[in-house]
Design brief:
Layout (H helix, E strand, L loop, with lengths): L1 H6 L22 E2 L2 E4 L7 H13 L2 H9 L26 E2 L2 E2 L1 H17 L5 E5 L6 H10 L9 E5 L4 H10 L5 E6 L6 H16 L4 H7 E5 L2 H7 L6 E3 L16 H7 L1 H20 L6 H16 L3 E7 L6 H13 L16 E3 L11 H6 L6 E6 L9 H21 L16 E6 L4 H22 L10 H15 L5 H5 L4 H15 L1
Helix pairs in contact: 2-12, 5-10, 10-11, 11-16, 12-16, 13-16, 17-19
Length: about 525
């Protein structure tokens, strides 16, 4: 990517000769089997030239090169960003501070494969995590359930500190044949550790011995000492590292449920698809580079139409959790108000929302078609059916027809003498097409959007790899929790530290909880 961007500098290219991604033949923009069609973006060749110039000006390729080289591009935390090494199946050396990280990664792969081979007779796996420790594996396990043979165990995911989610799982899980995976980078995450302690108490209540409980607990963390202090056996702790951001962590041992549910070969295929997208990302010229083109298209719509939101609509029920995963990726990465130099910015991440098509058409598509704001849409479709029903082809043709029709209607609109029946059109969209839904192409899809987020951060001059905005609420929750747990006779002193609104709310809830 780096060399190609430099080779394609404006001084070397005659005006109006770069092909517009909106004008290239369908299927020419492809990587790792995925096709990107930008024909409905409404961006002309000369405008694409300006966008490619912007990419050079923002030194997108330079940031990408530094990321893959292990430089500390997460400047606020002085950390490298090397999640791409986690899917580097060739084991090509990746240097960090003069040492190759690949041997440690390969050792974790071997341990995951060994665990898959020895786990027999397990009926239930409870995966406890939140945020990046939950979204990725939950998405992949659910998506592949439609297309990959399961190894038979029931995979449960617990994220919310609301006990209702966990209670429902514990009602059906079989304690003596259940394994628990506790995933926390710090092994101090409040929600995760509270849920983990409750599950351990559940095991004790069901008369498991100390040894049985120790064998049932698996930890995935960058803080191995904390996991040991919690009571995990060293052999049951799978490490990942501080250069892996939570929202980029599904490629690490955080993805353990994928391997356990579908086998290590399936997990490797998932990594292989992502790796293929990475190779495309760093090697393809700018005008053929899918992550860069998607980032530039969104940047264009933001600067030209002041876009504040984007919709992501997978026309595949198996991918219904994809928009939730993407929300964290985009908005936690690039939802910033100051840039890498500490200066205020006017553009950062738009609000991301979405759900599975065609259900979404009967929800908020009215707003997309005739609302006052322009909201770009990413349509994600799969070429082949994802069920084996006798009528699967008929259903899938209807699904694809709806996907294509909605994109056409958004782009072209419809004029009518009745204003209420008119559609303005000129609503931009992409089509991302997977040949089929399997682990390889799912990995490629997630890596496509990860790399797009990196490009967007470079275009906006943001640090896409820290998330200081999520910390304040966590800090404030601790004294509020203490106040809610305080004895009634000490509640007045407990609430003095809060503003009047919060103090009144605490007092009311305290009264409700005591009844």
């Amino acid at each position: 990517m780096s060399s190609q961007l430099k080779q394609n500098s404006p001084n070397n290219v005659p005006p109006n000769t770069l092909p517009s991604p909106s004008e290239v033949p369908f299927g020419d923009l492809t990587a790792a089997g995925l096709i990107l069609d930008t024909a409905y973006q409404g961006i002309h060749s000369s405008e694409w030239q300006d966008l490619f110039h912007k990419a050079r000006e923002a030194d997108v390729s330079g940031l990408v090169a530094k990321m893959f080289a292990g430089e500390a591009i997460n400047a606020s935390e002085n950390r490298a960003v090397l999640h791409t090494a986690l899917r580097n199946l060739t084991k090509t050396p990746v240097q960090l501070n003069g040492a190759d990280v690949m041997p440690a990664i390969a050792e974790v792969w071997q341990r995951i494969a060994a665990l898959c081979n020895k786990w027999v007779g397990i009926t239930d796996v409870i995966h406890i995590g939140i945020g990046g420790s939950d979204f990725g594996p939950r998405l992949v396990v659910q998506a592949l359930a439609h297309v990959a043979p399961s190894r038979g165990m029931r995979m449960h995911f617990v994220a919310n500190v609301d006990s209702a989610e966990l209670a429902q799982i514990l009602e059906s899980a079989q304690p003596h044949s259940t394994r628990i995976i506790i995933v926390s980078k710090s092994f101090t995450t409040l929600e995760t550790m509270m849920n983990a302690k409750t599950v351990v108490n559940w095991l004790k209540t069901n008369n498991l011995t100390k040894s049985q409980i120790e064998n049932a607990l698996i930890g995935v963390t960058a803080n191995v000492p904390a996991a040991k202090s919690f009571g995990l056996k060293p052999d049951n702790i799978y490490p990942f590292w501080d250069w892996v951001g939570g929202r980029f962590s599904v490629w690490s041992a955080v993805g353990l449920p994928i391997a356990l549910q579908y086998g290590f070969d399936t997990f490797q295929n998932f990594l292989a698809g992502a790796s293929a997208m990475d190779q495309h990302f760093i090697n393809a010229p700018a005008e053929q580079n899918l992550p860069l083109i998607m980032a530039l298209a969104l940047y264009y719509q933001q600067t030209k139409h002041q876009v504040k939101s984007i919709a992501v609509i997978p026309y595949a029920h198996a991918l219904e959790l994809f928009p939730f995963w993407l929300q964290q990726l985009d908005m936690e990465s690039n939802g910033k108000s100051v840039d890498r130099n500490g200066k205020e910015v006017t553009i950062s991440s738009p609000v991301v929302f979405g759900s599975a098509g065609s259900n979404a058409q009967h929800s908020y598509f009215q707003l997309l078609h005739q609302g006052t704001e322009i909201i770009p849409v990413d349509f994600i479709a799969v070429a082949k059916p994802m069920s084996k029903l006798p009528e699967a082809l008929e259903h899938h043709q209807a699904l694809l027809a709806n996907c294509l029709a909605q994109a056409q209607a958004l782009a072209n609109g419809k004029q009518s003498n009745n204003a209420a029946q008119s559609y303005p059109g000129k609503r931009p969209s992409n089509l991302v097409l997977l040949p089929k839904l399997d682990a390889y192409h799912l990995g490629a899809l997630l890596a496509l959007y990860e790399n797009r987020a990196v490009c967007l951060g470079a275009l906006w001059n943001l640090n896409s790899f820290d998330q200081p905005g999520v910390e304040l609420g966590k800090v404030l929750a601790r004294p509020i929790e203490a106040a809610l747990a305080a004895s009634q006779d000490s509640i007045d002193a407990a609430v003095e530290q809060f503003d009047s609104v919060t103090a009144k709310r605490i007092a009311h809830l305290k009264e409700q909880l005591s009844q």
